[in-house]
Amino acid sequence: MVGFKATDVPPTATVKFLGAGTAACIADLITFPLDTAKVRLQIQGESQGPVCATAGAQYRGVLGTILTMVRTEGPRSLYNGLVAGLQRQMSFASVRIGLYDSVKQFYTKGSEHASIGSRLLAGSTTGALAVAVAQPTDVVKVRFQAQARVGGGRRYQSTIDAYKTIAREEGFGGLWKGTSPNVARNAIVNCAELVTYDLIKDALLTANLMTGSCPPFSAWVPGTW
């Protein structure tokens, strides 16, 4: 572009969209075993009574869960559902983070000065929209993480098989189970993350403590999705 150096040209919406998804996928690759351990701990004792569940807990703590899974199911069990997890991040983070600026400009009608209300609307919109798009991938990911390989009785043989089985046995709506609370949660989380980042960045730029436009890397930190 005339009058701009290469470093001054703002990234396009497509670059932000793909960049956010790619960064989230890289983070997911690194942290997926922790996510799998979290799911196993959360569902432990689901089919047992409260007393039996406490007495016969198979997993104890994050490290204990990971070691137990490696010992009983093999190291690959830590990455059960990885394909669906990457699909989720590419669709979820791309919308949640990558479209935030574009949606904010839509609400402000192109104005350079966005109010807090416009930012909150943009954050809640992209957070809710991301869940609506990515919920089927989240359902499949969690189902894969939850199923143990012990005994050979696996319900889902592949990611595609999981989508088909859930849709066939539970109806098409089965792929969107848990959407409502997930939409509410991520709308709030997205507002807290991206709007806070946005306001702090503007304050730093106004005070001349930094220059340029930085992507919201803090929003890519796993554990807040």
Automatic annotation (TrEMBL):
GO terms for cellular component: membrane. Pfam families: Mito_carr (PF00153). Solcar repeats lie at residues 11-106, 114-203. InterPro entries: MCP, MCP_dom_sf, MCP_transmembrane, Mito_Metabolite_Transporter. It is found in: Membrane. PANTHER family: MITOCHONDRIAL DICARBOXYLATE CARRIER-RELATED (PTHR45618). PROSITE patterns: SOLCAR. This is Uncoupling protein 2. The lineage of its organism: Eukaryota, Metazoa, Chordata, Craniata, Vertebrata. One of its GO terms (biological process) is transmembrane transport. Belongs to the mitochondrial carrier (TC 2.A.29) family. It is a multi-pass membrane protein. Keywords: Membrane, Repeat, Transmembrane, Transmembrane helix, Transport. It comes from the Eukaryota. SUPFAM superfamilies: Mitochondrial carrier.
